[in-house]
Design brief:
This protein is mostly helical. Helices cover 76% and strands 0% of the residues. The protein is built from ten helices and no strands. Helix 2 (36-42) packs across helix 3, helix 5 runs antiparallel to helix 8 (130-145) and helix 5 packs antiparallel against helix 10. It is elongated and about 65 Å long. The mean pLDDT is 88. Residues 12-72 form the HTH tetR-type domain. Pfam families: TetR_C_33, TetR_N. This is TetR/AcrR family transcriptional regulator. It comes from Chryseobacterium endalhagicum. Keywords: DNA-binding, Transcription, Transcription regulation.
């Protein structure tokens, strides 16, 4: 390995360590307490080294958000590919979205700005719309399969996204006084009623 390649690999390693440390701190202390100084201390470097790789904390949060959306997209595609009919696909996609949110709370909170400012606002259109695009596709296919007018597919799929995201947000922000089983039951009933309405 040449000197240039070795230096490049070292840079990539330090960058990955910064992101990993930031995510680890968020898991233990919460996103609000994250700072460049804490990240530097966690990787045992000085703060200027961290600034060499990221302009500010927001740039780090944005990078982690992108990774979160990428991981979510993979889970949604896995769920979709398990089924043939659009009705089954829609249910599986919503369940995968729900499961991702609660298995990866720190990601989800950062990705959608729950209890904090949303990171990368206006910069993540493609990543942000993955879930909406997939439920739109299923909604459109169900409506078409039923011989109904597909003009409303966009509006209908947006309504479903809003309902799902709303339930997740309520449960994350008020998890002490709302039973998780109640919200999951509500979710299942909402999806079932949505499919029937198409």
């Amino acid at each position: 390995m040449g000197l240039h390649e070795r230096r490049q690999r070292e840079k990539e390693s330090i960058r990955a360590n910064i992101l990993q440390a930031a995510f680890g701190l968020a898991k233990t202390e919460g996103w609000a307490s994250l700072s460049m100084r804490k990240i530097a201390d966690a990787i045992e470097y000085s703060a200027p080294v961290v600034y060499d790789y990221f302009e500010n904390k927001e740039a780090i949060l944005y990078e982690i958000s992108i990774n979160g959306f990428h991981c979510l997209h993979i889970e949604l595609l896995k769920a979709q590919r398990q089924f043939e009919t659009p009705e089954e696909q829609l249910t599986a996609i919503v369940d995968a979205y729900w499961n991702f949110a609660f298995k990866n709370k720190e990601y989800y909170q950062l990705m959608f700005g729950l209890g904090m400012q949303c990171s990368g606002k206006g910069q993540m259109k493609e990543e942000f719309s993955s879930f909406q695009d997939l439920i739109y596709e299923c909604t459109y296919n169900i409506i078409k399969k039923n011989g109904n007018n597909t003009d409303n597919a966009c509006h209908m799929s947006h309504a479903l996204f809003s309902a799902v995201h709303g339930l997740i947000s309520i449960m994350m922000m008020r998890n002490t006084d709302i039973p998780s089983t109640m919200n999951k039951t509500t979710l299942d009933e909402t999806v079932s009623a949505f499919v029937k309405s198409l």
